[in-house]
Amino acid sequence: MLLGLIISTTGTTMVWPFLTIFASERLSLPMAAVTSLMSINSLSGLTASILAGSLVDRFGRKSVMAVGLFGTALAYFGYIYAGSYWHFAILMIGSGLFNPLYRLGSDAILADMLNPADRVQGYSIFRMARNIGVALGPILGGIVLSSNYNIGFMGAAATLIFYGLITLFFLRETLVRDPNAKPETLRQQIHVYRQALNNKPFAHMVGAFTLMEICAALMWVLLAVYLKQNFGVAESSFSWIPTTNALMVVFLQVFITRAMKPYRDTQVMPVGVLFYMAAMLIVGVSNQFWGFWFAMVVMTIGELITAPTATTFVANLAPTEQRGRYLGMFGLTWHVAMAIGPFAAGILTDAFGIRSPWFAGAVVGILAVYAFVLLDKRRFNPQSD
């Protein structure tokens, strides 16, 4: 699974960080229209994430992963022929529907294999593997895409197919089914989601993490096109920014996770979110490449602190037989953030200027810090309610 993750992530990140540049140059539309494509992708991903949790818990982790990988590969092939807004929109819907299937399946397999005490280290190692691919992909993409985007799309699809074949032939199914259990009805499945949202710490985590992810979405979706259009930073130069993020995760994640271990999870996470807020401000005031690069370094420190801690927090809250759905609902935070953040940034850019989204992102970051502080207080001092 780790091997397939490294190879497929290398392929997809050859293209994904530069997709807004590709769409903007091919469509020649205002920023709000281009960023709305990411909102479409996220809304379809939102729907898929809701369904994916039930699919993973009902049909098994392995088969759902394979469907997601092969489906996402088809979407990447489709971008080669995209020439209109609606063509892009259809492909964004497709990739949004398939992508959560393999991500959630792999998260659930990892949770199944590891004891609760080992999960935070397990997710850290998993993120390291993913970020080896993220370190390699943008560098290759910066070289390849400057001359031909089609090669990048074909490479992304091929690596996803490779991971799909690994999943089919080499992974084992980790879901243990009760032979006497009856399949859940749709009403019962929805009831599980309702139960999860009635879990106050979980619901609070979902809201707080969504605010933080809005800041991350601006960095991952808007920054590439922002730098190229306004500061002349080409793909080959920008590629070092996401690669820096990935290299920091690869070399520092385990160290940071161990350093945070003596502290309770809800005490650590507000500190991590402070770095996201600071990164927004740094981008907003920067004019040179190294200022933008430093903003990614700052945000990555926050990511190293917060991301594996939050995933472990959710996995430990969830009952074993409902873990897929809890993780699926937690995965909605990224899709909600992607639906709101880039589109709102596009509107702000067209209406108030190029720097306005980053200062708005800093405000959202402050709100996220406050939300995480409240989560810690309410979890360990319920009387504060």
Describe, in plain words, how this protein is organized in 3D.
This protein has helices at residues 2-12, 19-27, 31-59, 61-78, 85-113, 119-145, 149-170, 186-198, 200-231, 235-238, 240-260, 265-285, 289-317, 323-352, 356-380. Helix content is 83%, strand content 0%. The protein has 385 residues and is mainly α. The protein has a single domain (2-171, 198-379), classed as Growth Hormone, Chain: A. The mean pLDDT is 87. The protein has 15 helices and no strands.
Can you summarize this structure?
The chain is an all-alpha fold and 385 residues long. The protein contains 15 helices and no strands.
Q: Total domains, how many?
A: 1
Enumerate how many helices there are, as a single number. 15
Q: Briefly note the structural class of the backbone.
A: mainly alpha
CATH architecture: Up-down Bundle
Summarize the helix and strand pattern as letters. HHHHHHHHHHHHHHH
Q: Which regions have little confidence, pLDDT < 50, spanning 5+ residues?
A: none
Shape: globular
What value does the average pLDDT take? 87
Report Rg: 20 Å
CATH superfamily caption: MFS general substrate transporter like domains
Number of strands: 0
Q: How large is the share of residues in beta strands?
A: under 5%
* CATH topology heading: Growth Hormone, Chain: A
The description of the largest β-sheet is: none
Helix content: over 70%
First-residue to last-residue Cα separation: 43 Å
| CATH domain class | Mainly Alpha
